[in-house]
Backbone:
């Protein structure tokens, strides 16, 4: 068996393995591209929400601390 035949055999085996792995995951059909896109959109939305929540929590605590400082200064007068 020469190098070209071996390479072709390995490529065919890897393609079969990839198809089997995708089929095992339920992504072996023609609709899988839509499932992958939906999952990517879901992950993007999750990341956006996580970032927004973090920013909101930081903003809330910053405003609360500044409000407490302002109240302390006003109360001290």
Residues:
């Amino acid at each position: 068996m020469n190098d070209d035949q071996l390479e072709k055999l390995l490529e065919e085996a890897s393609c079969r393995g990839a198809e089997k792995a995708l089929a095992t995951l339920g992504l072996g059909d023609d609709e899988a591209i839509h499932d992958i896109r939906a999952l990517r959109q879901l992950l993007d939305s999750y990341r956006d929400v996580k970032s927004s929540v973090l920013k909101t929590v930081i903003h809330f605590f910053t405003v609360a601390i500044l409000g407490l400082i302002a109240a302390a200064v006003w109360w001290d007068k």
Notes: The chain has two domains: 1-29, 31-77.
